[in-house]
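Late entry, evening session. Most of the bench is empty. Finally got around to the prediction I had been postponing all week. Sequence below, unchanged from the version circulated by S.P.
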Amino acid sequence: MATSLRDQVALAAEQLDTAIEMFLAERSDVSALTLAGAAEEILGRVVKLAGSQNAIRQAYEASALTHRCLQGMDLKWQDFADGENYARNAAKHLLHEDKRHIELDLRRAAMWMVVRACANYERLDLVRTDRMRDFDNWFFDHEVGV
């Protein structure tokens, strides 16, 4: 079996395209979630290394401001990140040894993870793939209503 050196951004893009393919075909929401989650994490780290704000950090900044206004207290980064990544982490890890059954909306979790991964991809000034554009069309038809 031959091995080759592969760029991690290219690998993340491949994972994201596969996640979108599975999501749009309604084949496996949990696979779409975990693949998109892996891509989102890698792309988000590359965005951060490039000195920009990744998708989850941008969402945190907006949520923290709202949280402070409504609750009168600061929103902790770790609490926010844990909440945003709960479904992905629950699908990948046994979160509680005594609780193996969890209630998740895998479809929505996969959809929002794809959104975050695509946002990070764009922040790297990469050209969106055909599958990403297919997802955009699906998102506008099913979520935005345009």
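Two things to note before I forget:
The mean pLDDT is 92.
The chain has one domain: 22-96+104-144.
Will write this up properly tomorrow.
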